[in-house]
C-alpha cells in the first residue's frame, strides 16, 4: 500500500541493489516516499527501467525520472566510449578511482533531490552510497555527505529561513554488501527487480565481470544467498 501520511522524503533511486535497499529503509521508517531517478545520459539505460520496477514494487507516493545531461561532458566509461574495467581483483577494486567514476555525479543528483525536497517541504534526502564495498568514488565518502548537508542548509530558502534542517540520510554507508543484502531481504526487497551491471550485453543480462557485478556477486556469496538475476559470464 502506498503511504498517504508520514513525513515526505526524497529518495534517489537508480534501480540498483543499494538504492532499492535504501528506498526500503526509508519506507520502514514511515516516510512518504518520493523517488527520484536521474537520466544523466548513462550507457546503462536498463537501470531506469529497473528503477521503475522497484518504485512500483515498494509502493512510492511518486516516482519522477528527470533528464540532466552529463554525457555532454564525458569523462567516464558510463557516459562515453571508454572501456568499462572488467575482471579486476579485490585488491584492484580497493585502489584508486576507476574509469566508471562520473564527474560530480552525486553532487548533481543530490542537488536535484534537494530542489525537489524544498518544493515538497521535505527535509530528508536518502541516497544509497556506501564506503565499504564500493569502487572508490570520492562522492561516496562520509566527509562528502557531511559537506553536502552543510551546503544544503546554506544554499536554500528553507534552510536560511529556518523552516527545517536538511539531512542527507545514508543508511548503507558503513555496511558491507552482504549486510546490505540481508537488510534488504528483511525489508522485503526483491533483488530480481534490480539492475547493477555497468556494461550489460544486448540481451540485458548482467555481464558478471565489471566492478559492480563483482561486488554484487561477492555480496550474495558472503551472505550465503543465491542472486536472483542472470549473468552472461
Portion in helices:
25-40%
List the helices and strands in order: EHEHEHHEHHEHH
The largest β sheet comes out as: 5 strands, parallel
Low-confidence stretches: none
**Given the C-alpha coordinates, what overall shape results?**
globular
Protein structure class: alpha/beta
Rg over alpha carbons: 17 Å
Total individual domains: 1
Main β-sheet, spatial strand arrangement: 3-2-1-4-5
N/C terminus separation = 37 Å
Walkthrough of the structure:
The protein is 36% helix and 11% strand. The chain contains 8 helices and 5 strands, in the order E-H-E-H-E-H-H-E-H-H-E-H-H. It has a 5-stranded parallel sheet with strand order 3-2-1-4-5, with helices on both faces. Helix 1 packs parallel to helix 2 (46-58), helix 1 packs across helix 7 and helix 7 (177-186) packs across helix 8. The termini are far apart. The model has no long low-confidence stretch (mean pLDDT 94).
Summarize the structure.
The protein is built from 8 helices and 5 strands; from the N terminus they run βαβαβααβααβαα.
Note the topology.
Blueprint: E1 8-12, H1 17-28, E2 32-39, H2 46-58, E3 62-67, H3 90-93, H4 105-120, E4 124-126, H5 142-154, H6 157-160, E5 167-169, H7 177-186, H8 211-223
Parallel strand pairs: 1-2, 1-4, 2-3, 4-5
Helix pairs in contact: 1-2, 1-7, 7-8
Tags for this model:
globular, 233 residues, alpha/beta
